[in-house]
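Hey, I'm writing a tutorial for new members on how sequence and structure tokens pair up, and I'd like a real worked example in the thread rather than a made-up one. If someone can provide the structure for the chain below, I'll link this post from the tutorial.
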Amino acid sequence: MRRHHTALAAVTAVATAIGLNVGGVAAADPTTVPNGPWVNDAQHVSLERLHTYDELTDALHRLESRSQGRVDLSSLGTTHEGRDIWYAEVGSGPTRLLYVTQQHGNEPLGTEAALQVLQQLGTSNAAWVRDMLDDITVGVVVRANPDGTERFQRQNVDPDCTGNFCAPGVGYDINRFHDPALDPADNPVPEAAAIQAHVREWQPDITVDYHHQGSYVADDGSLITTSILWPTHTDVDPAVVTASKQVAVTVFDTVSAYGHGEVSLYPGSDLAGIARNSFGLQGSASLLVELRGGIGQKSSGYLIRQAYVAMMAVAQAAADGTLSEVDPSRADEIPPRGPFVPGEE
């Protein structure tokens, strides 16, 4: 595939300059071995570098204060255990870009990257940041599943859950309860209901949902660092699919060109309740981003870097209008995901 990446040089320079450090979360050395390290069953993977709910709450409030009014922090609602579902917004432009992170509590690095995006956009006085925020408004659901995160589990916390997509005694899979046909007031999953109510009110032009998958390899044996997919539900407007593919190509180019990234197509389903499809059905260009699983203490640093740079590249392309110039047909050339690596998840 031809690789043209929007504003990548500027974004990469920013990532290097700030060291990707928010609230004490330091990134790995940029010379980390490409596509490594491999994580085995015996390896201890520390979660100390990740924000707990209380730490995240404190970091967001500090950022709101430091931003001097640029970052607006609010709660979209509360979980079964009473934790806030934090939402941060920055910018005043007409194009609305929404990031959603950590619907699954054990998929954490999109949240860490989003914090750094908010730090950059909320506190930098660089001219390019000011220009960007005149053209777009960036909203972030910062950790959609705070209860599940505290237990480092996929589901939310609802031991009384029943029916489809319920793990008995544990909770629901949030990312199956976004069907636009389901009224938020009737949604049994408070986290999904809060996100859907916000999407209906705010009507984002672009949404990107960050997750983790297991560890997979490409044809040459290198670890896939990111897999992506646009809406695949048959009722999504073709124009929305086209716009979504333009976002996909932007992410593909950015990650492929930075940090030894290896990008593949994610083999997702067409369920309307999946956020990627739901956002598309509601008229928003939409993309799922699945970061590599099996994260170790070194590999998490470069995965955060790649997620951050991809987020910033989409924001820049949406702001300067170059996103609409991307050839969407190139998305169909993104290589399929390779085989799963046992013991790496």
